[in-house]
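We now fix the convention by which a protein and its fold are recorded. Here is one such record, which you should read through line by line:

>
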Amino acid sequence: MDRPSETTPDGTSPRTFALNHSRPKSSFQGCSRIADYELQGKLGEGTFGEVHRARSRKTGALVALKKIIMHHEKDGFPITALREIKLLKLLSHPNILRLEDMAVEHPTRQTDKRKKPIMYMVTPYMDHDLSGLLDNPSVHFKEAQIKCYMLQLLQGLRYLHDNHVLHRDMKAANLLINNKGILQIADFGLARHYDGPTPRAGHVVGEGRRDYTGLVVTRWYRPPELLLQLRRYTPAIDVWGVGCVFGEMLFGKPILAGESDAHQLELIWDLMGSPTDETMPGWKSLPGGEHLSPRSRPGNLQSRFREYGSGAIALLKDLLKLDWKTRINAVDALQHPYFKKEPLPMEPHQLPTYEESHELDRRKFHDRKAALPPAPKGGTVGLGPDANGATAGFNSNDAYGDIDTYIPSYRQEEAGGRRRDDDRPRDDRRRPTSKDSGRRYDRERRTRSRSRSPIHDRNRDRDMYRR
């Protein structure tokens, strides 16, 4: 029989008190089993795992299962996955992907080589990611639609930064959209808590307070300060990614598709102009800027995006500002005049619906593009005679506007000559003739292929993302 105890309010023993005041059994049920879900196909790959579509056998709802890959099981559960789970459990916003459940898959047989269980993160199923939509040749965004997506993206980003969270992998493939017009920020595998001031209206973020790893953000969306190896960065790195996504929605494809970090910087200087003490104070003192001497150039953002209007260009300039200390923040970007001009942003429920479009659907979409009829004689696919490398406009019915091909553009010089304005990088992979240069070529090519390998990048980054 239980002995009374003065430590419990009703005078019973701690065990009896715990039994009498336990949580309802339905309040916490732990992890689900993978058998509770019916897998329906692979959607893509996140920073540290695969993503599958599935249907819940209990509720019938469509969900996405993110498989957490254990590259080195002896090291324990990946810290990046722990961070992602922790952040998603803490965050709650209409434009942030919600973590609904965790599911576990145990080894099915005693002879199974895999001894440890596999964990899955369960989130609501979203019909598209932005990268898949932009690759779909049947999808053509109008300006009012882009404004709606941008407002939702900035609202989600403001919420993250208000809660001291850096996403650190802002890109089109990590923005999910459903057929109700809702956009959500996903893939928090590189996200972390930010130890610094939160953005405020009319105030710049300024300098960061502590060092973080520089091995974050996919290269095409990586800001120049990270490419120059700034370690004390701020929420401004996410804002740069939003600018790249905005330009991608306007242009129909990535606007800064560099093949290396050095090439990425060159593309940024081409677009925004060469860095100076006025446009990017302190860039020379960064580790990656000490020995750089980029050629002087004014930047071609104005001419490259002129068909989208002065409002879009003004917002792009603010989002892609070279000076990270004074780059616009999400709070001020939401109040930008661009969103108050005609055409006004559409409401999410007014947006069109599309067939499912994800990152892994690109091959299907590219096959469709290859099957399109050829361009008319005397013209360039999707471009008028005066175009400068831009895709079809917002209201264009041109079915070729966003074909993913390289189309060189030209600019008239004062002397009346014509030169390429956006040549491809020089092809240094052409086989050299001499024996010594041939050996050097093979060695550089092997090094380059390893550096471009996704597996190599994943293994290299795994050790660095711990900070």
Notes: The chain is about 30% helix and 10% strand.
